[in-house]
């Protein structure tokens, strides 16, 4: 491993910490509002979903939603900014291997997501009383989800020609798919064809894997949920690795 | 084309001649489709070759999230310096380039002259054997240009190989031991400033430039 990798990773984390009000505080506050408004306010009307109190039911989905969005947004904006201002040349010219540059740039988003996850759960678990039934499955689900969305952020940061491109993927793809992925409801209650269509949504499997880790229940088998998430993560890492290995879009 | 170890080599040519493309190829910033490049005997893509090269690009491409000291330390880290060495070297560079008072200032808040100095200091952080300067004095005032010339001369006197591109003929004449004129990606003339004047029967480097470019275009 080159000596440059820890420096690059720490540069990405430093950027997150320097911008902590935008990168950490804002998403934590937004998700806590979701938990308070949807969970505590609606829990009087919606007593439980599949035997789980509603305020606990939404914690896993909202937590992972905040984390994957942060991982994606961090890496897409950091990589795009580096390309836009051309200081990425300082990294591309340095004695680091393509996979090291890819990993270094990806870690910022993952660390940001973990900080948000820890902050959210530190408040949400005591307030809602949500349990952590399967910590290993939870850790694996979160790891795979962060790998997937960190790599997606890097890929979009490399392809984006404008800031709008990076926002487009978040606003018109990730956010709607997350809301339709069973964050606020069990897809089992949906009528056909919405029930079947939900199974074509990749984020559905991430939400299910994380929900299983917290609550011990999910709409699909946890093995299937982890398998789909892992396969998507592998595809996205392969894509970002190919971009760095070939220099495509990064080098004229 | 080859540049000898310890040489001060200048590349002159019009916009689009291929100066920046050549530099970018050496520094792995473009995808090379044909030919071979080696740096002190190492293929240019190898990590060993990359460690030996320092680049100050024509455009000021500083990391907007880092302050002056961080810019230098992180660059040193990318090139393999450990934390203690990177910190010490960053302070050394800030002293040499008179940047110490701005150590905690982020790049976007610096004046144009300060950014140029930081760009040069960053290129020298890891003590490269080959320093590539792509129009280092473009757009700077005369006073700073003289100051940068002094830095560059001192660097060369310490044994560093320098590859300089410039549009300023007097800069090439003042600094470079050898000059190549480049047009449409090809070297059309190469010699010392005196040798070029003699070869083209010209009184100044400007006359050499006009004659050589005219002949190449014909």
Textual characterization of the structure:
Chain A is mainly alpha-helical. Chain A has one domain. Helix content of chain A is 76%, strand content 2%. Chain A has a two-stranded antiparallel sheet with strand order 1-2. Chain A is globular. Chain A starts with a helix and ends in a 6-residue tail after the last helix. The model of chain A has no long low-confidence stretch (mean pLDDT 93). With 218 residues, chain B is α/β, with parallel strands linked by helices. Chain B is 43% helix and 17% strand. In chain B, strands 4-5-6-1-7-8 form a six-stranded mixed beta sheet, with helices on both faces. A two-stranded antiparallel ribbon of chain B has the order 2-3. The longest helix of chain B has 16 residues, at 142-157. Chain B is globular. The A-B interface holds A 2-4, 6-8, 10-11, 14-15, 18-19, 81-82, 85-87, 89-97, 246-247, 251-252 and B 24, 27-31, 47-48, 50-51, 53, 55, 57, 59, 61-66, 70, 74-75, 77-82, 122.
Brief overview, please?
The complex is a heterodimer of chains A (252) and B (218). Chain A has helices at 4-18, 20-42, 54-85, 88-92, 98-128, 135-159, 163-179, 194-198, 202-215, 222-246; strands at residues 48-49, 52-53. Chain A is mostly helical and 252 residues long.
